[in-house]
Specification:
Two copies of one chain form a homodimer.
Chain A: E1 2-5, H1 10-22, E2 27-30, H2 41-44, E3 54-56, E4 62-64, H3 66-76, H4 87-113, H5 135-158, H6 169-183, H7 193-203
Parallel strand pairs in A: 1-2
Antiparallel strand pairs in A: 1-3, 3-4
């Protein structure tokens, strides 16, 4: 197996944290998204969508999408479980993880891709010649504010972790959202005590440095 | 169990097709997204994100997100398998299904939500007061053209179905993309013979009328 990775990028980091929680080591190939390494012919021959992270299995199968890669690792290295241990829990964690992606991660990505000069013609991941749209910045800022509010009052208001009593992939995604948000100067408000308590705890796990 | 559904909407249809393939019947509650039933207090008390479909389990757990609901059904009703039967296959189908969602479904949704008068202040699902952004229409039209090209030449160019030799959840998502695209006058080009062959086959399955 080989993981096509990018040290600075938030989506590859989600897989690195997942691997670190499982104590799994995989050979890595570093590409630089900011310099467009992922859109060059060599990598497009491996993954025509040009997205990182991409996990290439020993039989040559290329898996992209963080959750698909994570599921492969979860099934081949079940301990500790990060995607649930019962039917109900697996579905619930999957639902919550998608909330973190769609409401959180995508809001920050909207801000980032439509403001950063390197992405002026890369408004969508893995595609060139998609012009930035300035109005998406405002929409993204409203989105991340809504997300932070719901993270504090709803998801983390009653339970210690995003999907219940155990650390899961949904916490990894949420942690990556909070840290990615700093790139665009969006911070957890200082009165969001539930989120700040959770953030301190998950940031102190050794996997957070991955 | 109770499924909060909307007969006209493409995401709830994905779950209905999934259920029909499994021959599973679930009690349904019909809400009208176009009239904003999903943003009214009664439904927000069940799902604060205001999204359909939502599956409420007998213990009161509310699951939203099509794939989370589908996974619950897949595990409780394994036959016929629609999400893979081996570790590699489950991860691969998940990766492919996300391609259909992100590259296909989201492109069409960008066009639809930013042109349809009922969604003038509903640029994102489940949230009011998000103004439409006209430039997203052009971005969505370029996106669906790219998606159709890749669907025909890459995904369906070598194998009969989107994720290989068997019908799977990725075909359900792709079918819903092609049908949703008609709403915004985007059609599979007439020279896309692989896609048209596949579309005819999947549309003739009894589940397609769900």
């Amino acid at each position: 197996m080989k993981l096509y990775d990018c040290q600075i990028a938030p989506n590859p980091r989600r897989v690195r944290i997942f691997l670190a929680e499982k104590a799994v080591e995989i050979e890595r190939v570093e590409l630089n998204i900011a310099e467009g390494d992922n859109l060059k012919p060599d990598f497009l021959a491996i993954n025509p969508r040009g997205l990182l992270p991409t996990l290439v299995l020993d039989d040559g199968t290329a898996l992209d999408e963080v959750v698909a890669i994570s599921r492969y690792i979860e099934e081949t290295h079940p301990e500790p479980p990060l995607m649930g241990t019962s039917t109900r829990e697996r579905a619930f964690i999957e639902s919550r993880n998608r909330h973190m992606e769609i409401d959180g991660f995508m809001s920050v990505a909207e801000i980032f891709r439509n403001t950063h000069p390197s992405f002026r013609e890369r408004g969508l991941p893995g595609v060139s010649a998609v012009p930035a749209i300035p109005q998406l910045v405002e929409r993204g800022r409203a989105g991340i504010a809504r997300f932070f509010e719901r993270l504090n009052s709803y998801y983390l208001g009653q339970r210690p972790f995003v999907a219940g009593d155990q650390f899961s992939i949904a916490d990894i995604t949420a942690l990556s959202v909070v840290d990615f948000a700093k790139w665009v100067e969006e911070k957890v408000p200082s009165n969001h005590v539930n989120t700040l308590r959770w953030y301190e705890a998950v940031s102190q796990r050794p996997s957070a440095t991955a």
